[in-house]
C-alpha cells in the first residue's frame, strides 16, 4: 500500500512539474548588422545608382534625420512599366563595407508581396550604408544606396 501511495505521489509530482510552462519571452528585434561588421572599414567606392528597373521607395525610416534602434524598415517596390512587374527573387541587400556583406538572408522573412516590412530592426550606433538591388521580370536593374545614422542609445 505504501509503495502504491509513493508511486502515485511521484506521478503527481512529475505531472505537476511537467505542466508548468515557462513564461513566453517576447521576440527579440532582428540584429540586421552585427557590431563586428559595423567595425569594418567603410568602402570608398560605390556603383552609381541605377533606375532602369523597378522603383525603390524607402517608406521607413525617414532618412532625413538620425534614427534610434530598434527601428522599422519599410521598402516598397513598384514596376516602372506595368507589364514588367517586380522580380522579388532578385532582391539583394548589401552592407557596404570594404568588402560588401550580403545581408539579404536576414530580411527574407519580412518580404511581403512587393515590399519589405521589418518592424523591429537592431542596428549598432554609427553610420551604415546599405545597397538595395532589385530587377523586374525582364532583368532591368535598379539599385539604391541608403545611409542610416543611428544614435547612441
Report what the structure shows.
It is built from 2 helices and 10 strands; from the N terminus they run H-E-H-E-E-E-E-E-E-E-E-E. With 153 residues, it is mainly β. The mean pLDDT is 81.
Describe the SSE topology:
Elements: H1 2-19, E1 30-31, H2 35-38, E2 50-51, E3 55-60, E4 71-78, E5 87-95, E6 101-102, E7 111-112, E8 115-122, E9 126-135, E10 141-150
Parallel strand pairs: 1-8
Antiparallel strand pairs: 2-10, 3-4, 4-8, 5-6, 5-9, 7-8, 9-10
Shape: globular
Structural class: mainly beta
Q: Total number of helical segments?
A: 2
Radius of gyration: 24 Å
- The helix fraction, in percent, is 10-25%
In whole angstroms, how far apart are the ends? 65 Å
Give the total of beta strands. Answer: 10
The main pleated sheet reads as: 5 strands, mixed
Give the oligomeric state. single chain
Strand content: 35-45%
Low-confidence stretches: none
Q: Could you report the average pLDDT, rounded to the nearest whole number?
A: 81
Q: Give me the strand/helix succession.
A: HEHEEEEEEEEE
Amino acid at each position: 500500500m505504501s509503495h502504491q501511495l509513493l508511486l502515485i505521489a511521484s506521478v503527481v509530482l512529475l505531472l505537476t512539474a511537467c505542466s508548468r510552462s515557462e513564461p513566453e519571452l517576447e521576440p527579440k528585434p532582428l540584429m540586421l548588422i552585427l557590431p563586428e561588421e559595423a567595425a569594418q572599414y567603410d568602402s570608398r567606392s560605390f556603383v552609381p545608382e541605377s533606375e532602369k528597373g523597378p522603383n525603390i521607395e524607402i517608406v521607413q525610416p525617414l532618412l532625413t534625420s538620425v534614427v534610434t534602434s530598434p527601428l522599422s524598415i519599410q521598402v516598397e517596390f513598384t514596376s516602372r512599366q506595368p507589364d514588367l512587374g517586380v522580380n522579388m527573387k532578385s532582391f539583394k541587400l548589401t552592407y557596404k563595407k570594404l568588402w560588401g556583406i550580403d545581408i539579404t538572408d536576414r530580411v527574407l522573412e519580412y518580404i511581403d508581396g512587393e515590399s519589405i516590412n521589418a518592424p523591429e530592426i537592431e542596428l549598432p550606433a554609427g553610420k551604415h550604408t546599405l545597397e538595395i538591388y532589385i530587377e523586374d521580370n525582364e532583368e532591368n536593374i535598379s539599385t539604391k544606396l541608403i545611409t542610416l545614422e543611428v544614435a547612441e542609445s
